[in-house]
Design a protein that fits this description.
The chain has about 425 residues and is α+β, with helices and mostly antiparallel strands. Helices cover about 35% and strands about 30% of the residues. It is built from 14 helices and 18 strands. The strands form 6 sheets. It has a 5-stranded mixed β-sheet with strand order 9-4-1-11-10. Helix 1 runs parallel beside helix 5 and helix 4 crosses helix 6. The radius of gyration is 22 Å and the shape is globular.
Length: about 425
């Protein structure tokens, strides 16, 4: 399983995270393609990357420039931009979930509701580009699990649309408190962790250092100059299960057991995951409902996914007095239980939910992009114990290209299968 660890000695922001991804091998052309897919107004944005020195360290500075005036957006406005983009569903869901976290944090700070919050700085186009770009970059690099270090929080004051506020920004603190994020004293004063950076890690990362086999490191640079190198580092590699044979073998033993037959075999080995079957502890949250309009389940399903549900499904059931009903079930990480349970209670007619622990075994997967005569298509590759088992093209990519070419989706799908 390909994983990453975000090392943040000088904090994190959206553009620093983007710089890490670009420095680690994600191409600037792909980032620009992702922004193009958002259908932003022509001429309203520019994305670039620059190699810079931060003290003695080389890093990549991601440059996102936008021109749109003084834009104030609600959560619904931002998610509408994301949903209207030609992006893979997983990228849309993760980016929408990040903005939902931001809205909830801002709502707690300003004593209102997420739906009523006016996004100022974090609703501008550059923040949208940062968040969607990070979600797309992680997806295209095939990173299935993100970990992060404790965050350094600096003191001071910042001038915002709401006036002068203390640092760390109140929304940043709310975001980190909601997930119990660990913090450490900053090396100096200043805003080191922005609300955008905090929201990305609160939604996408597990705050722990994993056991891993390192493959490459990406350095992202911040715009500000401090008395120390203003960088974050993204470590990318393969996860190593605790107590696995791979963890206990020496490097020499690995070489004897798996001699490098060719450069191609090395690349193939690097693309497969370390362990045969990954399992994680999860919960199922479910409820029986017999008094809700069936049309309302779809928006509930969308909001559950946006809030971090791993899967959502419904099943027809029979209830007391012969009434037909619906079983609504949600699979999620244990730390998401309270948030998703509250969402179900708020968004449906049910009066209660039940929760029970489960665990699952999953195959390793990797994401690749293949070229077809109709254009590039992202495919999901399935592995088990390092053995390739299958491949599946992304439906949204196939449909978009089919619509553009005026051919059936199955034709593009078949072309992608052949290319894969």
């Amino acid at each position: 399983m390909k994983i990453a660890y975000l090392d943040t000695p000088s904090g994190i922001s959206g553009d620093i995270f983007l710089g890490c991804l670009l420095d680690a091998g994600w191409s600037l052309e792909r980032l620009r393609a992702v922004v193009e897919a958002l259908h932003l107004p022509p001429g309203s944005w520019r994305v670039d990357a620059q190699p810079v020195m931060k003290g003695p360290l080389r890093a990549t500075l991601a440059v996102v420039e936008v021109s749109e005036g003084d834009a104030h957006r609600h959560l619904s406005d931002v998610t509408a931009i994301i949903r209207a983009g030609d992006l893979p569903p997983v990228v849309q869901e993760r980016a929408s979930a990040v903005f939902t976290r931001l809205a909830e944090a801002e709502a707690r700070v300003h004593n209102t509701t997420p739906e009523q919050i006016h996004f100022h700085e974090v609703g501008a186009l550059d923040a949208i580009v940062d968040i969607v770009g990070v979600c797309a970059g992680l997806n295209e690099l095939g990173i299935e699990r993100l970990h992060a270090s404790p965050l350094a929080l600096g003191q001071g004051w910042a001038q915002t649309q709401h006036g002068r506020i203390p640092l760390p920004a109140p929304a940043t603190l709310e975001l980190l408190a909601a997930v119990g994020a660990p913090t450490v004293p900053a090396p100096g004063a200043g805003e080191l962790v922005t609300p955008t950076g905090a929201a990305l890690l609160a939604e996408l990362a597990d705050f722990s250092q994993p056991r891993m086999t390192l493959q490459r490191i990406g350095y992202g640079a911040g715009r500000k100059e401090f008395a120390w190198p203003n960088v974050a580092r993204l470590w990318i590699g393969e996860g190593v299960a605790l107590g696995s044979r791979r963890e206990t073998k020496t490097h020499e033993e690995e070489k004897k057991e798996h001699p490098p037959e060719s450069a191609q075999s090395l690349r193939q080995a690097q693309d497969t995951a370390a362990s045969s079957a990954f399992h994680s502890s999860l919960v199922v949250i479910e409820t029986n409902i017999d008094d809700m309009n069936p049309e309302l389940y779809e928006p509930v399903r969308e909001r559950l996914f946006a809030a971090g549900a791993l899967d959502v499904w419904t099943a027809a059931i029979g209830m007391k007095k012969g009434r037909p009903g619906t079983l609504l079930s949600v699979l999620a990480a244990a730390e998401k239980e309270a948030e998703l349970a509250r969402l179900i209670l708020r968004e449906t007619t049910t009066l209660g939910v039940r929760v029970y622990p489960v665990h699952r075994h999953i195959a390793e997967r990797a994401f690749r992009t293949v070229e077809t005569v109709y254009g590039p298509v992202q495919v999901k590759v399935k592995f088990l114990d390092g053995e390739w088992l299958g491949v599946k093209p992304e439906y949204d990519d196939c449909k978009r290209l089919a619509d553009a070419a005026g051919v059936p989706v199955r034709i593009v799908y078949a072309a992608a299968m052949a290319a894969a």
